[in-house]
TrEMBL record:
Pathway: Pyrimidine metabolism; dUMP biosynthesis; dUMP from dCTP (dUTP route): step 2/2. This is Deoxyuridine 5'-triphosphate nucleotidohydrolase. The lineage of its organism: Bacteria, Pseudomonadati, Thermodesulfobacteriota, Desulfobulbia, Desulfobulbales. InterPro entries: dUTPase, dUTPase-like, dUTPase-like_sf, dUTPase_trimeric. Keywords: Hydrolase, Magnesium, Metal-binding, Nucleotide metabolism. The gene is dut. The keyword Metal-binding applies. Residues 21-150 form the dUTPase-like domain. GO terms for molecular function: dUTP diphosphatase activity; magnesium ion binding. It comes from Desulfocapsa sulfexigens (strain DSM 10523 / SB164P1). Belongs to the dUTPase family. Pfam families: dUTPase. GO terms for biological process: dUMP biosynthetic process; dUTP catabolic process.
Length: 151
């Protein structure tokens, strides 16, 4: 599989030396699991949103983004997901990578330091070059959308 360099650094290496870098759990996994750098256990109440630290920053190649996506196990078993999924880490961002979780489940969810809370997917990006025109070409769909073909 094609690999692309992503520079990563701990923001406070001394404080975070107990944490592991994001890792692909299987050979062909698309996402690297990312761990919570919370200082102690954090209880995410039902219905609550919290921005979790990861303790690291990255530098991605131009033309790529890192997407912050939910882990399906957390979503299905506990209703815990990434509220802005897929979160976008821009190639020019040098701040701490953060994970915004929401607890859509009925029970509070405990996040411990080092828990795998989301996954990061490196994805290519193409910027749109907008061309302002007065009329668009016609298509058979036209303006139909939002279920106009039926459910
Ligand atoms: O889940 C996320 C989403 C974003 N970011 C960081 C990296 C990203 O490059 C930056 C800005 O994200 P975005 O463009 O989605 O946020 P915004 O609300 O539009 O803020 P800004 O005005 O800073 O672009 O915040 C994260 O750490 N985690």
């Amino acid at each position: 599989m094609e690999k692309r360099n992503v520079k990563i650094c701990w923001l406070d290496p001394e404080k975070n030396k107990d944490l592991l870098l994001p890792v692909y759990q299987t050979e062909l996994a698309a996402g690297m699991d990312v761990r919570a750098a919370v200082e102690g256990p954090y209880l995410l109440e039902s219905g609550a949103v919290h921005l979790f630290p990861t303790g690291f920053a990255v530098a991605i190649s131009p033309g790529y983004e890192l997407q912050v996506r939910p882990r399906s196990g957390l979503a299905v078993k506990h209703g815990v997901t990434v509220i802005n999924s897929p979160g976008t880490i821009d190639a020019d961002y040098r701040g701490e990578v953060k994970v915004a979780l929401i607890n859509l489940g009925k029970m509070p969810f405990l996040v411990n330091r080092g828990d795998r809370i989301a996954q990061l997917v490196l994805a290519p990006v193409v910027q749109a070059q907008l061309e302002l025109v007065t009329k668009l070409d016609e298509t058979s769909r036209g303006r139909g959308g939002f279920g106009h073909t039926g459910l």
